[in-house]
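Lab meeting notes turned into a lecture example. A postdoc, R.K., suggested we walk through two folding results consecutively so the class can see how the record format repeats. The first protein's sequence and structure tokens come next.
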Amino acid sequence: MNRGENYRNARTAIQIGIVNFTLFKQNPEFFSNYYMINEKNRQIYTRKFRLCVLDLTQIELATKQDRKFGLDKWAALLTAATWEDLSMLAKEDQTLKSAIVTIVQLTEDEKIRLQCEAREDYYRRTEGREELLRETEEERDQAVAEREQLKAQLGQTAARLDQATAE
């Protein structure tokens, strides 16, 4: 809303929470609406702000109205454990079928992304091992060169010692 506009022209704001736990154990509900109310007289402040909660653990408590709007089917979609469950839901409802096709596509995209990440991780680890191997080979070559240098120095020292004892 802009400054000076009448509050009655405000659009409704709805927050939808989809949860896999029961908010109030003493009063379980599948779908519930919450409004801001005056604590003393229980008057609702406004119907333009509402919290809606869909409890996926309470599908069996769906009312006729919940079923009329298909909330139970959407909850079944969100809780489906197998591709067979999704297939059964797709047969029942064209809108759900469209959503399931999208889920399958997104899942495939995710699989491809994971495969690409695994490949890049493999290359990174392989590169790291090869670099370590190169470093190890360089260290070995350096150690061999140092040993040869020490041998040469030892040979020179032995020659000087032989020369000194011969005199």
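The second example is placed directly after the first for contrast:
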Amino acid sequence: MPSQDNKDQTPNQHAAAADLYGSNVQKNTPDQRELEAHVLLKSAKFLADIQNDWANLNSEVLEETLKYNRQIWMMFYDTALENAEGDRPDDLRSNIINLANFIFKREIEILSAPEKTKLNILISINRDIAAGLMEQQKNMAASDNKSEAEQQPAASTGSLETSA
């Protein structure tokens, strides 16, 4: 489960952490989408774990788990808001913002009246988005491999023509 070490963080510390996260991802991860997918799957697992052990759940664990999920979606939300000129189309940015808003509202509903079935949609969304990110990564890798394969014969043909 998520730790409680960051209880005392202020919004400025969260912004600094998000900036550090972004620069660290670019340096140490081959693909940010893959990392985002793994983080979403981790959150989905945490949510499923508390759902499966609902009888032994305490409010502190529920709050921390939802906070972890919310922090992930805040990064998506912030990126969608701030990256207006980025590589994401406006409709995708709008969908991310709307989905994040839905998740935030759902978490409030869960905290105000906890029911384990209310977690189903959060788990499902996280898993579905992660699957989409991983599929997109797979398609990009396949496309890159295809491009490399197409370029190799052309390069070898060119060198044969110059030597002849």
